[in-house]
Structure to design on (451 residues):
C-alpha cells in the first residue's frame, strides 16, 4: 500500500521532531519513521540518561573531596538503584513522544527506511511517497577492524547495564570513553582507556586535557596512549583485549569492553543510491541550505549530514529549524556555526567554545591568552576542588572574546556565558560592566578577563 506525504522524516530524535512538528503545524501531511523506539539517541541512549549517571558520580566525587572538611564519610553508589532511577526518565519517553506525534496528526511507522526511488521509501510492508524527505537518522558506533569485535559493548548497552563489572576496558580516548570511565571509576570499577594516539580528547585545549588526565589518574583511571587494539577474546565471563602499547605486545582483562572510538552516520541500510542521494564519510552531501546536492527533494541534518557542525544535539536542532524553514518558505536560511559550545561530562568537566589558541594564531589574530589556575578561587576552594583552570582567547585589537576553554565542575554552565559573548561580539569591557549575583560561578567571569 502506498502512502503519500508532504514530508517524510527518517529519525525521531530532536532534530527530526523539530522539522516534523513545524511542517505539521503549517498544515503539511507528515510521516515519521524509526527502526528503534521513538525519541532518538540523546533522549534515550545518550546525553540525557548519561547525565543522570553523571549526577550520582558527581555526588560521590563531592563527598570524597569534602571528607574531613565537614563530611564524616564518603558516599557509595548503588548501581541497580541508579539504573532504576535512570529508567524513570527513559522508559516512558518513546510512547509519550510517539503519542504526541499521533495526536498532532503525524503518521508514525516502525522499521528500517530504504529508498526505492528519488521520492519513495519502503518501511516494512509500507511504501511511502514524499514530496520532501528529511534524513535525521543520527549516528552509530564506527565499525572497528578488530578480531572479536562482536564482543564490544556499545554506549547504549552500557547505559542499560544491570550490574557494573569490576574491570572495564574502554577503546578510544574521546567523549564516550572519558565520560563513562569517570562514572564507572566513581562506582568502584577498575577502568582502563586504550587510545591509539598520543593525545586523547584531541579537539580540546591540551593544557586542560593534561589537567583532566591528572585527575583521571588520581581516581584510578589507567590511560594507555599509543595503544593499538588487535583482538578481543572471551574467556569465561571475562574478555581479553590484546594489542600493542608503544609497539610492545600486551593485553588487558575486563568483564566489559566498551566501544568509545567514534561514531559514523546511520545511513547504511537506506539504499541512498536508489534515491539518488549522494553521501560521503561524514553524512549526506548537502548544500549550505542542508539540501541534498544530488536530489533536491531530500534534506539532512545533524549527524546524518556532512556539514561543518559538531555532532551535538544543539547543532542538530539548529539545523533542523533551518531545514523546516527552508522547506516551508524556500531555501533562505544557512545555519550559523560561529558558536558551538561543547562539554565533556567528566568530573571535573571540560568545556570549549570558539577558537583554540592554535586556531586563532593560524587565522592571523593578534591575541592575548588569559590562562588561569582557578583552583584557589573561592568558587572551587569552598568544595576542595583542586582541579580547575580557565583559558580565554582575546583579540588584542578589538578586545572581543575569540574562545574560551574551561576545566572545572562549573564549566558546563560557565561556557554558555562565553558562548553568548562570542555570538554577540561582546568585548571584555562589556562583560566587566555586568553585575552578577555573588557568590556564584558566573561572578568569576570578569576576573577571567583581567588585562
Amino acid at each position: 500500500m502506498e502512502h503519500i506525504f508532504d514530508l517524510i522524516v527518517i529519525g525521531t530524535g530532536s532534530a527530526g521532531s523539530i522539522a516534523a512538528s513545524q511542517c505539521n503545524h503549517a498544515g503539511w501531511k507528515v510521516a515519521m519513521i524509526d527502526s528503534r523506539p521513538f525519541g532518538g539517541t540523546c533522549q534515550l541512549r545518550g546525553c540525557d540518561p548519561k547525565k543522570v549517571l553523571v549526577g550520582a558520580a558527581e555526588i560521590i566525587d563531592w563527598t570524597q573531596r569534602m571528607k574531613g572538611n565537614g563530611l564524616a564519610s564518603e558516599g557509595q553508589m548503588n548501581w541497580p538503584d541508579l539504573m532504576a532511577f535512570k529508567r524513570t526518565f527513559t522508559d516512558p519517553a518513546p510512547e509519550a513522544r510517539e503519542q504526541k506525534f499521533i495526536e498532532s496528526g503525524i503518521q508514525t511507522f516502525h522499521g528500517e527506511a530504504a529508498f526505492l526511488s528519488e521520492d519513495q521509501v519502503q518501511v516494512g510492508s509500507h511504501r511511502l511517497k514524499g514530496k520532501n524527505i528529511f534524513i535525521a537518522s543520527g549516528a552509530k558506533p564506527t565499525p572497528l577492524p578488530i578480531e572479536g569485535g562482536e564482543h564490544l559493548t556499545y554506549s547504549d548497552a552500557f547505559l542499560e547495564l544491570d550490574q557494573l563489572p569490576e574491570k572495564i576496558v574502554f577503546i578510544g580516548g574521546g567523549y564516550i570513553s572519558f565520560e563513562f570511565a569517570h562514572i564507572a571509576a566513581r562506582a568502584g570499577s577498575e577502568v582502563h582507556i586504550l587510545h591509539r594516539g598520543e593525545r586523547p580528547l584531541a579537539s580540546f585545549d591540551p593544557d586542560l586535557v593534561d589537567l583532566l588526565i591528572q585527575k583521571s589518574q588520581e581516581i584510578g583511571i589507567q590511560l594507555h596512549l599509543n595503544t593499538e587494539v588487535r583482538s578481543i577474546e572471551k574467556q569465561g565471563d571475562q574478555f581479553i583485549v590484546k594489542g600493542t602499547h608503544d609497539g610492545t605486545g600486551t593485553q588487558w582483562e575486563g568483564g566489559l569492553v566498551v566501544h568509545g572510538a567514534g561514531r559514523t552516520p546511520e545511513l547504511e541500510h537506506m539504499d541512498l543510491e536508489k534515491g539518488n542521494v549522494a553521501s560521503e564519510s561524514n553524512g549526506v552531501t548537502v548544500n549550505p541550505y542542508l539540501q541534498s546536492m544530488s536530489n533536491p527533494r531530500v534534506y539532512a541534518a545533524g549527524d546524518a549530514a556532512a556539514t561543518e557542525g559538531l555532532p551535538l544535539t544543539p547543532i542538530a536542532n539548529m539545523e533542523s529549524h533551518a531545514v523546516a524553514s527552508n522547506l516551508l518558505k524556500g531555501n533562505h536560511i544557512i545555519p550559523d556555526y560561529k558558536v558551538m559550545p561543547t562539554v565533556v561530562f567528566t568530573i571535573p568537566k571540560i568545556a570549549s567554545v570558539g577558537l583554540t589558541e592554535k586556531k586563532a594564531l593560524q587565522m592571523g589574530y593578534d591575541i592575548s591568552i588569559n590562562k588561569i589556575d582557578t583552583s584557589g578561587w573561592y568558587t572551587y576552594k569552598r568544595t576542595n576542588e583542586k582541579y580547575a583552570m580557565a583559558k580565554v582567547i582575546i583579540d588584542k585589537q578589538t578586545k572581543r572574546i575569540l574562545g574560551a576553554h574551561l576545566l572545572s565542575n562549573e564549566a558546563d554552565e560557565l561556557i554558555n556565558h562565553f558562548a553568548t559573548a562570542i555570538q554577540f561580539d561582546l568585548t571584555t569591557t562589556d562583560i566587566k560592566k555586568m553585575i552578577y549575583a555573588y557568590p556564584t560561578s558566573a561572578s568569576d567571569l570578569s576576573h577571567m578577563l583581567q588585562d
